[in-house]
Amino acid sequence: MTMFGTLYPESYTFKYPKAGEENSVVSVRVYDLETGKTVTMDTGPETDQYIARISWTADPEVLSMLRLNRLQNRLDIMHARAGTGESAVVYSEENMYYISEPSDQSVTYLPDAERAILISERDGFYHLYLLDYQTGNLQPITTGRYDIDAFLGYDPDEETLYYTSYEESPVEKHLYSIRIDGSKKNRMSTDHRRCRPRQRCPGARNPLGTANSCHMLSHPQTLLCSRRR
Question: How far apart are CA 123 and CA 101, in angstroms?
């Protein structure tokens, strides 16, 4: 592949498996900066799979791994102990046809180290769910025949989520707030114009939406931020 952008273009070579070839085997490892020890996380016996996302949970000793099978019809959320590599599946989702590749927003861990906000298409539409990964209990937060566009942030003091969705129309996106138990949903945008991309608010725990083009709240430049502890 030719790489441009400098005075002279350069050739760049990378591995790309063709049909019939075996894919690379992917491993997940944690390196301890203090001890210099590297621990390999247990991702299961299957090697022909995708490790779609990795992130830390609210517990600094527990790593989250999103595992997608090769057919892309089963998604597992795995938790692995950083010190030992031991892992367990805390949530699984299957679809007889296809599951889209998870994004960085697919799982958001809450500060209590027991729950997470999950974005799933399990009922045919993208919605927000509350996952208790200690018990495996999954409760819907949003429901209906519409898709969530983006999860923008969580206020732990008010137990309130902020998100954008196409509830009004497939071509009309609005900003909403909702309690974590699915109550007190409130549409915060006030006109029919499309919201601008979200921005990160300095010092906020999560990025939330900017109000520039939707006249949200009382001031057109207001940024919605979760409280900083």
Answer: 17
Is residue 205 packed enough to be buried (19+ CB in 10 Å), middle (13-18) or exposed (0-12)?
A: middle
Domains of the chain by range and CATH? Answer: 11-102 (no CATH), 104-229 (2.120.10.30)
Contacting residues for 182 by C-beta, under 8 A, at least 6 apart: 139, 140, 141, 142, 143
- For residue 8, how many other CB atoms are within 10 A of its CB? 5
Round to whole Å and give the CA distance between 206 and 228: 10
pLDDT for 53-100, tens place per residue?
Answer: 999 999 999 999 999 999 999 999 999 999 999 999 999 999 999 999
Which residues face 69 on adjacent strands?
49
pTM (2 d.p.)? 0.78
pLDDT, one tens digit per residue, over 155-201 is 999 999 999 999 998 888 999 999 999 999 999 987 655 555 444 44
Give yes or no for a contact between 52 and 66, defined as CB atoms under 8 angstroms apart.
yes
66 in helix, strand or coil? strand
**Cβ atoms 160, 176 nearer than 8 A:** no
